Amino acid sequence: MVAHLHVAPPPETSTPAGGRDALALPGGAGGWVLLVGATARPEVAEALSREGFEPVRVDGAHGALARLGVEPGAARSGPESVPPGPDAGLPRLVVIDADLPDGDGFSLCGMLRADARSAHLPVLLVARYAEEFHRDLAAGVGADEYLVEPVDARDVAVLARLKAGRRGGEDVYDAHTSSLPLVALVRALLSGVRSGRVVLAEDSGALVFRHGLVVDATFHGERGSLAFRRLVCFGTGAYTVTFGPELQRGTFSMDRPFLCEQVVPGLERFEQLRVKGLPLAARLTVDFNRLSQELPSLPEDVEQVVRLFDGRRTVRAMLLECRFPEALAYEAATRLFMLGVLVPAILVEERERARESAGPPRLFEPVLAPEPGPDAS
Q1: Which of the listed residues 41, 100, 139, 372 has the most CB atoms within 10 Å of its CB?
Q2: Among 32, 11, 299, CA closest to 164
Q3: pLDDT for 78
């Protein structure tokens, strides 16, 4: 029977002790969010509060207009209107239920877009049921996103944080993985219907999303689903989200359920190992004596992990070259290190330098006979 590379079981919970949830948002954004209608259910307000926002609830369109200081039917002052600054007393985001007791969310969104004071406010429309014409209607009234129930409260919080990073009057948003991890961002983007792309700083990686699907990704020379997996595991730093038509042919298709059920659990295992396991910057090499002792108990395909540790590659470089899923390869490397098969390369280098400093082995030096004493005849 052939053994396969399964070195450790998955964690019992999605949020490992000592680790962090792959969907967690570190830090808080600040500001307030206006919730209009039934979207102001407690779980959404709680999620926004956890992320540093102050949720403010109103029942309908009239309450929203009054809270924002917008006059119904007011005309927009012109296309040159400048979006108000963060101190203008306006919310970071407006979340509107499509069905309101005194009207509908689409009309309310149109009113906000028609007034210079609120024209640039990010607006999310939430509908109880998916209707074919709703997406086009939402785009027609200028909504930033259209979501269909059931809506995950965490996605609303992520979109609120993203929209807080708007670049002027453009449909472009700046963010950073330290405050908005890529996997949390993608999960929220796939809950909506918009299209666009996410580009890491210096073009080290990118992904394309279209109507609730991720359709392409690139990362360090890779493209497709493997590149997407590598991107959410290793992509760090500043990035830009740009909304707009994306007509290029995709290389794969991934929806939100697949992301949540297949990608996120592996990423959470990966995050746990980053907290408790081997440093990604560590350089390891193989102790072949130890490997020969442990080889009978190791699975056959572990060789694909062992051969990548040559003393020059870091753990991160090994994970990027290995074709196994990142969490599985990381677990394998950690297990091999615990067994003593992998050792820090610097220890081997120091041992070699010590041997060199001792000089060549004294194998062929002649043995001199003792000189005869003065009494010898």
Answers
A1: 100
A2: 32
A3: 43
